[in-house]
Amino acid sequence: MKSIISVENLIFEYPQGEECEAIRAVDGVNLEIEEGSFVAIVGQNGSGKSSLAKNLNGLLVPTSGSVKVKGIDTKDDETIWELRQNIGMVFQNPDNQIVSSIVEDDVAFGPENLGINPLEIRDIVDEALDSVWMGDYKKKAPHLLSGGQKQRIAIAGVIAMKPSCIVFDEPTAMLDPQGRRDVMKIIKELNVEGITIVLITHFMEEALQAERIIVMEDGKIVMDDSPYKIFDNIEKVRAVGLELPVIIKLISELRKNGIDVPKNIFDIEGMVNYICQ
Amino acid sequence: MIRDITLGQYFPGNSKVHKLDARTKIIATIMFIVELFIVNNFYGFALATATMFMIIKVSKVPVRFMVKGLKPIFIIIIFTFVINVFMVDGTILFHWKFITISYEGLYRAFFMAARLILLILGSSILTLTTKPLSLTDGIEKLLRPLNKIGLPSHEIAMMMTIALRFIPTLLEETDKIMKAQQARGADFESGSVIHRAKSLIPILVPLFISAFRIAQDLAMAMEARCYKGGKGRTRMNEIKFTRSDIYASVFLAAFLAMIIGTRYI
User: Fold this and answer.
1) Is residue B7 scored above 60 in pLDDT?
2) Interface pTM, i.e. ipTM
3) Residue B207 and which of A67, A271, A277, B191 are 20 to 30 A apart at CA?
């Protein structure tokens, strides 16, 4: 498969003024993300996963190394807008990324910035809102909606720009369980439609739904594999300081107690099928 | 409490006034306010009041709702009325010890009060019938000619849009901070006015910090969605000057002529 994002030797430092040494958030990351894939990036606080995400669409520019999206370098000022149209980003706090006091105007913000014809924008906005099941809330004020609904509006705002890849930076961290489920469902639907997904998350249950998990620690990639292989190595995941998903804990406890759960089971669905056999 | 103020609120509706171009309404409001100061006699005020009520009728905003909007400035109206009644010299109508009421004073007081009330009604009908966003759009378009002398009209409109959007968010934030401080024993309700004002200072500091944090997040989100200023930007809802705007303008011109006419009666 063709890769859509390629990161080469990425080092990113937050400058700290003259006297202090710069803080190195991302330390020599090499990464290829394939078109249409669903990648989760996990790691503890301060592991550099958010800094890496902001490097992907040029919100932060590499201190050294390079990031290319569809062959466009994030360092190039002239093509930065084309790049950002290609790679959308959804942030953690739904409140702080909604620009307008009417839902549909907020979704239109991106296409308006791209200079799309007003008549076309109307259709794009309707379509984007429908795809996050918020079509009925077009004329509502965002501050009257729930956190999950607001986050869905933010996602619609990104979809409306027709990106080929969306980076989600802990999109569910501030949501209640229902909002979290809705957002995850939308993310998976978008992936099925062919949009490349990079999901940064704290929740292992969410990471488990991706096809590839990247584990970060101290700005470096320490593990990079399919969920099945990552959670096969329980000790290493624990050593990085990550919480195991409940289902993985269950499987490992069962194995300890002499029940031989087949190696290819690592999600709830597979477990249910196995138990019901 | 802050939510009770109707001045600046939007009253959803679908009337002829609601549908007018925001630019027409902004200009009409400014002209109406200027006219209130041209008026110098009873006929003029009668005409202005009649016109005002006609517009309110057409806009289908309940009169009760409009009157409620007058409440916060009621004290100011009473105050100007009283000052005018007692302070203006002229033909004495009533005299008792140090209190004198003159004919001119009474006359002036009534005009002043009528002027203030009409001023408030006039400007609230603008905000009541125009969505905040159309209003900022209208202002942007009206200010556009001033771009040539370096006035950033798009940026001003964008700032207003964002300010409107974040009023509820910042109110929520204030509420959160106050509750957190109350939970730790802060007292905002008792003591003298000065004492209470002082106890609000510890709220402002975290509020400012959180406002800056929100601003930073928002700037990043806007950049991620390709915001690069007003250049090359299109609008989903282009505001349009329609036939009814022409009628409204003709009506407005006629009203202006009549108001000037009343000066010579």
Assistant:
1) no
2) 0.87
3) B191
**Domain count of chain A?**
2
Tell me the CATH number at A25. 3.40.50.300
Q: Count the neighbouring beta carbons within 10 Å of the beta carbon of residue B242.
A: 13
Q: Which residues form the domain of B125?
A: 2-130+239-262
Residue numbers of the domain that contains A252: 245-277
Q: Do A271 and A209 fall within a single domain?
A: no
pLDDT at B8: 60
User: Would A272 be classed as within a structural domain?
Assistant: yes
The minimum CA-CA distance between B235 and chain A, rounded to whole Å, is 6
Q: A168 and A217, same structural domain?
A: yes
Are B238 and A91 in contact (CB < 8 Å)?
A: no
- The yes-or-no verdict on residue A149 having pLDDT over 90 is yes
Q: Phi/psi zone of residue A68: left (φ > 0), alpha (ψ -120 to 50 degrees), beta?
A: beta
Q: Do B227 and A115 touch (CB under 8 A)?
A: no
pLDDT in tens, B222-237: 999 999 887 888 888 7
Question: Would you list which residues of chain A are within 8 Å, Cβ to Cβ, of chain B?
Answer: 54, 57, 59, 81, 84-85, 88-89, 91, 93, 95-102, 104-105, 108-118, 121-122, 125, 141-143, 154, 157-158, 161
Ordered DSSP codes for chain B: -GGG--TT------SHHHHS-HHHHHHHHHHHHHHHHH--SHHHHHHHHHHHHHHHHHHT--HHHHHHHHGGGHHHHHHHHHHHHHH--SSEEEEETTEEEEHHHHHHHHHHHHHHHHHHHHHHHHHHHS-HHHHHHHHHHHHGGGGGGT--HHHHHHHHHHHHHHHHHHHHHHHHHHHHHHHTT--SSSS-HHHHHHHTHHHHHHHHHHHHHHHHHHHHHHHHTT---STT---SS-----HHHHHHHHHHHHHHHHHHHHTT-
Confidence tier at B195 by pLDDT (50, 70, 90): confident
In this complex, the residue of A54, A96, A118 whose CB is nearest that of residue B236 is A118
Q: What is the pTM of this model?
A: 0.81
Encode A38-79 in three state secondary structure.
EEEEEECCCCCHHHHHHHHCCCCCCCEEEEEECCEECCCHHH
Please state which of the ranges A55-59, A222-226, A251-255, B23-27 shows the lowest mean pLDDT.
A251-255
| Range among A130-134, A142-146, B111-115 rated most confident | A130-134
Asked if B225 and A107 count as a contact pair (C-beta separation under 8 A), the reply is no
CB contact under 8 A, B133 and A95: no
Interval A245-258: pLDDT, tens = 888 888 888 888 88
CB pair distance less than 8 Å for A113 and B165: no
> For residue range B100-113, what is the model confidence (pLDDT) as tens digits?
778 888 888 888 88
Report d(CA A104, CA A126) in Å as an integer: 8
Confidence of residue A39 (pLDDT cuts 50, 70, 90): very high
